[in-house]
């Protein structure tokens, strides 16, 4: 017998008419913001499929921007996210794409900091407020943001994954899921590690000691 959560029946707490188009949109941009880890000065949202066709009517635009401002899906400030972004000096734009992807509710969150750092995160709203991150800077990945998650940018060198595993073991962390994605052998790779327990800063600091680890991002809801 399969288990059905009450949240699968009644849906998430949210502002807006649609869990896929509003709650899911907030979650995607909120996770992208946490991954970026820097103060956003400019953000562009490229919308695909149903998102591109209905984002104004469903409030997906306000939801996406609200998530990038750090708002939760039930935060009433989402309704005023345009004005709040302007007050904070954050510029934003929305672009409709005609490209047909595998899922109707897809968005690229293109972020830029005041000092010029950039990151593009592609997310999919899969229904009921649930989401999936499917790309980071054009590298295919897959995680759902439901567990404390480390996203580690590193060179594809021998010993890096063993170093990561030892750091987690030393901090008594249990790995729930782990996947590695790379451009090509010996080049840049992303390791996605979802853990059972909350991840503390000491682990991140330990990971950054390895010269082959370029960046460590933490998504923890």
Which terms summarize this structure?
single chain, 221 residues, Alpha-Beta Plaits, 6-stranded mixed beta sheet, 4-stranded antiparallel beta sheet, 7 helices, 10 strands, 35% strand
How do the strands line up in the largest sheet?
2-1-3-4-5-6
CATH superfamily (homologous) name of the largest domain? D-3-phosphoglycerate dehydrogenase, domain 3
**What is the 3D form?**
globular
Percentage of residues in strands: 25-35%
Sequence-ordered SSE layout with sheet pairings:
Elements: H1 6-10, H2 19-36, E1 40-49, H3 50-54, H4 60-68, H5 81-87, E2 91-96, E3 105-113, E4 118-127, E5 130-136, E6 139-143, E7 149-155, H6 160-170, E8 175-182, E9 188-195, H7 201-207, E10 213-219
Parallel strand pairs: 1-2
Antiparallel strand pairs: 1-3, 3-4, 4-5, 5-6, 7-9, 7-10, 8-9
């Amino acid at each position: 017998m399969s288990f059905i959560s009450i949240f699968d029946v009644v849906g998430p707490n949210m502002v807006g008419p649609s869990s896929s188009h509003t709650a899911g949109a907030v979650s995607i941009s909120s996770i992208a913001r946490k991954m970026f880890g820097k103060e956003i000065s400019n953000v562009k949202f490229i919308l695909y499929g149903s998102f591109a066709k209905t984002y104004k009517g469903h409030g997906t635009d306000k939801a996406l921007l609200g998530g990038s401002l750090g708002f939760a899906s039930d935060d009433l400030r989402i309704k005023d996210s345009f004005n709040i972004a302007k007050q904070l000096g954050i510029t934003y734009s929305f672009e409709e794409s005609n490209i047909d992807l595998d899922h109707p509710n897809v968005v690229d969150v293109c972020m830029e900091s005041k000092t010029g750092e950039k990151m593009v995160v592609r997310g999919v709203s899969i229904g009921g407020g649930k989401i999936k991150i499917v790309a980071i800077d054009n590298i295919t990945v897959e995680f759902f943001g439901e567990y404390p998650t480390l996203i580690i940018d590193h060179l594809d060198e021998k010993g890096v994954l063993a170093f990561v595993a030892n750091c987690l073991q030393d901090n008594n962390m249990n790995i729930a899921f782990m996947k590695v994605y790379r451009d090509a052998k010996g080049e840049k790779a992303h390791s996605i590690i979802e853990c059972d327990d909350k991840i503390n800063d000491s682990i991140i600091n330990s990971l950054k000691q390895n010269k082959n680890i370029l960046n460590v991002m933490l998504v923890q809801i």
